[in-house]
Write a structure and sequence with these properties.
The chain is about 45% helix and about 15% strand. It is built from 5 helices and 8 strands; from the N terminus they run ααββαβββββαβα.
Length: about 220
């Protein structure tokens, strides 16, 4: 049923209930008045026990239920409006992973990472030195799943004299759109990032250069 039609039906039903209660109250008071007129025309002899006399001038028991019903109906309509407004509200925007996912591992010391230590960490993470002078993770068909570049331009690593090379951090990057199974590669990507960070005692940053959190990881994974 359409939400606006449902709202109209419930409002109409509430009004009918209130009108019915008012009509019942009116008829009851009318009958009570007629009964009083009847007894007023009669003559009574003897003494009347004061405890049996009904004092109705301060009686508000008939009015209270109606007021309570009106308030309950109004509250019910307010609750319905609030519920329908929530249902009509636009859903929060869905997180969309960037075209290129980049996580960084940065050094905690000013000297940065030594080239020899980097090579050892990359070997543990099963990363190969490629023709572009960066390190890469290759699939079974020797296609690149993701790469690792130096944070200092031009982003390459030397192929000799690594013991004399230092860099402040490295950047892992992957492009989900060109991958056959982006979710699996992302899990491998994340594992490699963690392995290198542990081996080098580095800090992991997300694509916004903020400390990587499980929330960010889950959002990216769900968007792939």
């Amino acid at each position: 049923m359409d939400k606006e039609l449902l709202r109209v039906v419930i409002i109409a039903t509430g009004l009918l209930v209130i009108m019915g209660m008012l009509a019942w109250h009116f008829l009851k008071n009318k009958k009570f008045s007629q009964d009083l007129d009847f007894f007023a025309d009669q003559e009574f002899t003897g003494n009347i026990n004061e405890s049996l006399v009904v004092h109705h001038e301060h009686d508000d028991f008939d009015v209270a239920p109606i007021e309570k019903t009106v308030k309950q109906s109004a509250q019910m309509l307010d609750d319905l409006d609030a519920e329908l407004d929530i249902e009509d509200a636009d859903p929060p925007p869905r997180f969309v992973a960037p075209d290129i996912i980049q996580f960084s591992v940065v050094s905690k010391i000013n000297a940065g990472f030594n080239g020899f230590d980097l090579l050892k960490a990359f070997q543990i993470a099963e990363l190969d030195y490629g023709s572009l002078k960066i390190f890469e993770r290759l699939d079974a068909k020797r296609r690149v799943d993701f790469g690792v570049a130096c944070m200092v331009e031009p982003g390459t690593f030397p192929d000799t004299d690594l013991e004399d090379f230092y860099c402040p951090g490295v950047v892992f990057f992957m492009q989900p759109a060109i991958l056959d199974d982006a979710l699996k590669v992302f899990d491998d990507f994340l594992e490699a990032v963690n392995l290198v960070a542990v081996e080098l005692d580095g800090e992991i940053l997300d694509h916004q250069r903020k400390p990587l959190t499980n929330v960010t990881i889950d959002l990216i994974r769900q968007s792939l």
